[in-house]
Amino acid sequence: MHKLNNKVSEIESHIPAVAQSVPASSGTTDVNIKTCIVKTVQDINRRDSNVVVTGFPKQEHETDDEAFLSFCESDLAVKPVIVWY
Fold first, then answer.
1. Tens of pLDDT along 32-85?
2. pTM tops 0.70
3. Cα separations (Å) of 71 from 24, 53, 59, 68, 82?
4. Which among 2, 4, 15, 43 has the fewest CB atoms less than 10 Å away?
5. Domain segments of the chain: what residues?
6. Which helix or strand (DSSP H or E) is residue 6 part of?
7. Among candidate residues 32, 37, 30, the one with its CA nearest the CA of residue 8
8. C-alpha span between 69 and 62 (Å, rounded)
9. Distance CA 41, CA 10 (A)
10. Is 74 exposed, middle or buried (0-12, 13-18, 19+ CB in 10 A)?
């Protein structure tokens, strides 16, 4: 939680500069800026929990996705979101 608070404080410190750089007629409001901050913090937190898996053994009757999900659900008690890059 301390790490998150530090990130929020860091982002909030940039708000005045960002707000001044946006023309007043653009319709940007405090709500829009706060929404942007929330989305940015959520993205940072999501990226902090990313895991790259290599060397996972091939399974004959399952795809890599299915085998990894099965492993996580049975051995780690989590159900990850799998994203391929």
1. 888 888 888 888 877 777 778 888 888 888 888 888 888 889 998 888 888 776
2. no
3. 53, 12, 12, 5, 13
4. 2
5. 2-48, 53-85
6. helix 2-13
7. 37
8. 10
9. 11
10. exposed
